[in-house]
């Protein structure tokens, strides 16, 4: 299993890496983490839909994962 995130990953896959990523995703407006979109939608797609910066989201997720190891 990978411990890093990129913008092509699906939300559900990010949550499977570490449940603590939910807090960061929610801070970017992704409040429906259990909905069907999380299984099919990439971080890039979700950020486009929510009007947020995917590069900043990926950066924050990877920082969190690095610290969590």
Notes on the protein architecture:
By secondary structure, this protein is mainly alpha-helical. It has a single domain (11-68), classed as Orthogonal Bundle (SP0561-like). It is 59% helix and 0% strand. The chain is built from five helices and no strands. The protein has helices spanning 11-17, 21-27, 37-40, 43-50, 54-68. The longest helix has 15 residues, at 54-68. The model has no long low-confidence stretch (mean pLDDT 91).
Radius of gyration: 11 Å
- SSE string: HHHHH
> Could you tell me the mean pLDDT?
91
Q: Gap between N and C termini, in Å? A: 13 Å
Q: Which term fits the overall shape?
A: globular
**Assembly of the depicted chains:** single chain
Report the CATH topology name.
SP0561-like
Give the name of the CATH superfamily.
SP0561-like
Query: In what range is the share of β-strand residues?
Result: under 5%
Number of strands: 0
Residue share in helices?
Answer: 55-70%
Which architecture does the CATH hierarchy give at level 2?
Orthogonal Bundle
Strand-pairing-aware structural class? mainly alpha
CATH class: Mainly Alpha
Number of helices: 5
Low-confidence runs of at least 5 consecutive residues: none
Chain-wise SSE layout:
Layout: H1 11-17, H2 21-27, H3 37-40, H4 43-50, H5 54-68
Question: How is this structure best summarized?
Answer:
The protein has 69 residues and is mostly helical. The protein has helices at residues 11-17, 21-27, 37-40, 43-50, 54-68.
Which properties best describe this structure?
69 residues, mainly alpha, SP0561-like, 0% strand
């Amino acid at each position: 299993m990978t411990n890093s995130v990129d913008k092509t990953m699906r939300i559900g896959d990010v949550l499977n890496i570490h449940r603590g990523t939910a807090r960061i995703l929610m801070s970017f407006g992704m409040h429906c983490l259990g909905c069907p979109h999380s299984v099919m939608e990439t971080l890039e797609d979700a950020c486009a839909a929510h009007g947020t910066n995917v590069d900043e989201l990926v950066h924050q997720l990877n920082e969190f994962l690095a610290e969590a190891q």
